[in-house]
Amino acid sequence: MNKKVASERAPSVVPVHLRDARITTQFVTANGLEFEVDTAGDPQSSKLALCLHGFPEHSFSWRFQLPMLADLGYMAWAPNLRGYGRSDRPVGVGNYALEDLLQDVAGLIDASGAEEIVLIAHDWGAVIAWYFAIRKVRPLQKLVICNVPHPQTMGQRFSWSQLKKSWYVFFFQLPRLPEYLFGKDDGAAMAKVMQSSAVDKENFSTEVGEVYRANAMQPGGLTAMINYYRALVSGGGAKRQKDLGLPTIETPTLMVWGEEDVALEKETTYGTGDYVKDFTIRYLPRVSHWVQQEQPEAVNEMITAFLNDQSVPEFVWRWELTQAKKDEEK
Asked: Which residue, 326, 282, 329, 330, is CA-closest to 306?
């Protein structure tokens, strides 16, 4: 296992006072690159829970899950994907091809030395995770997907409404203009992406937004993030995967879905069980795309139950006439 301590690179974009003391940071060499990895739990555990973040996030987005996974006996890792955080940032669209991203995950798993692997993923990380399970790049014991549909159902349910929500994917195919617009005013827009679209904004303070802004505004950061979309669409990554076929996933899978997703329609989840042999889905009403950050307690309970082979609880939103209750108490 090839690791280096975090102090060997520039300071993290996450300030010390926002960091959970139970989480440490290391650098891990995998697939020819160095990855910044937030870790928790026993580094000698034979069980790895590997958490993959999305756009425009950072390993920090798993701050509520890593200690929970450690308590369950896992070596919990949340890497910054290539181009993010202090992980290596190769130049050029071709370096963000889906095939390379799959090998990054495989390399991280190999570097961990673990024998039992659980993959937990959100947004772009979940795109990678779906294909990782489909291609059986490495054996997985379980798969947890947060707010990204299976590629087959995404294609089948790609409605006019979804097309409008996906505007940014097509916008990102343009050269330079996305970086210019999102980078204006030192990336001010990147600081507000999550807070503006979250339903419950408690976990998306100005300080938290600053983490994601600083992350995106590192030299080459925005371009690296956007190159994921360029490599998938205009670079042909999605087409290559489709041409290979999409066999049924055998890995037991839990999907956690915040219903107030500004980027993805709930309908894109329908029919997922046709392509995943052992499938469980839990919808979270009145919760946004940023589900594991916005409702960490509920999501953690769901993941815990799933990993322990227990019945996964439902999330129910209850509306109350609070004024009426106050009147009754008078």
From this structure: 282
Asked if residue 290 lies in contact with residue 204, where contact means CB atoms within 8 angstroms, the answer is yes
Helix-helix angle 124-135:237-244, to 10 degrees: 30
Encoded tokens for 278: 């052992």
Task: Provide the pLDDT for residue 1.
Answer: 46
Q: Which helix (H) or strand (E) holds 125?
A: helix 124-135
DSSP string, 72-123: TT-EEEEEPPTTSTTS----SGGGG-HHHHHHHHHHHHHHHT-SEEEEEEET
Eight-state DSSP code of residue 276: B
Question: 295 with 315: CB under 8 angstroms?
Answer: yes
How far is residue 253's CA from residue 270's CA, in Å, rounded to a whole number?
15
Split into its structural domains, the chain has a count of 1
Catalytic residues: 123, 229, 289
Distance CA 144, CA 7 (A): 31
Low-confidence ranges of the chain (pLDDT < 70): 1-8, 320-330
Which uninterrupted H or E stretch holds 184? helix 177-197
| Three-state secondary structure call for residue 38 | strand
Residue 324: other Cβ atoms inside 10 A: 9
3-state secondary structure (DSSP) of residue 58: coil
Q: Any idea what the CATH number is for the domain that residue 184 is in?
A: 3.40.50.1820
**Residue 317: what pLDDT?**
80
Which domain, by its residues, includes 27?
3-329
pLDDT at 318: 77
Three-state SS annotation for 240-270: HHHHHCCCCECCCEEEEEEEECCCCCHHHHC
Contact in structure between 48 and 119 (CB atoms under 8 Å): no
Number of Cβ atoms within 10 Å of the Cβ of 93: 19
